[in-house]
Prior knowledge:
The chain is mostly helical. 64% of the residues lie in helices and 0% in strands. The chain has a single domain (4-216), classed as Hypothetical protein af1432, CATH 1.10.3210.50. This is Hydrolase.
Amino acid sequence: MLSQQQQLQAVQAFAQEKLGHDTTGHGMDHLKRVARLAKKIAQAEGVDAFLPVVAAYLHDTIDEKLFADVQAAEAAVEKFLGQQEFSADQQTEIMQIITQMSFANTLDGSRPQLSLAGQIVQDADWLDALGAIGIARAVYYGGKHREKLYDPQLSPREHLDRAEYRNLANETIINHFSEKLFKLAGLLNTKTAQAIAVERETFMHQFVRRFLAEWEGEA
Length: 219
Ligand code: ADP
Ligand code: NI
C-alpha cells in the first residue's frame, strides 16, 4: 500500500515528465504555485488537501493547447493513477476535475459541475493568472505566441466563444486582460480565493491604467 506522500511524489514526477520542459507558462513552476494555493484554500475551507493538490499537479497534463492528442494524454493520466493505487472513486474525481476545470469550458455561459476539491483547484489555477504573476504569465505567453503588446486599433472582443478563444489572430496581450483576466475574479468559487483575488485584481487594474497612460506619454 502506497502512502499519500509516496503517491504525491509519483504525481510530481509524472507532472515533471509531461510539463517539465514547457515554456508557455504551464511548466512545473505554475503547477507548484497552483498546488500551494490549492493546499492553502483547502485548509482555509476545511477540506482535505490531498485530492486538490494531486489534481493541481495534473491539471495541465491534458490541455489541448499543449498536447495534440488529448485522448491519449487522458488515457496516460488514468493509467498512471491506477498504477499508483488511487482508488476508482479518486480516479473518477481527479479525471472529472482536470477535464472540466478550464476557463474555456465557461465560454458558452455554462459552469460544469465541479466537486468541492475541483472548485478549489480551479480557483487556485485562476488565481495564478491574476496579480503580478498573472501579468508576467500573460506577457510571457503572448510573446511566445507572437501577440502584440498592445494595439489601439484593436478593441477587446466582448463575447468570445471557445473557438475564438483558441484562435489567437489579432489578439494583443493588453486585450487578454479584458477578455479573460478581469473576468476570472467574478467566477471564483470559494470565499477564500475571492479574498485573495481582491489585491491581485486591484494591482492588475493599476497596471493596465498605467500602461495605457504611459503608452500615450501621459505618465
Ligand atoms: P485555461 O487553462 O483556463 O484555458 P490558459 O491555459 O489559456 O488557461 O492560460 C494560461 C496562462 O496563459 C494564463 O496566465 C493566461 O493569462 C495566459 N494566456 C492565455 N491566453 C493568452 C493570450 N491569448 N494572451 C496572453 N496570455 C494568455
Ligand atoms: Ni493551469
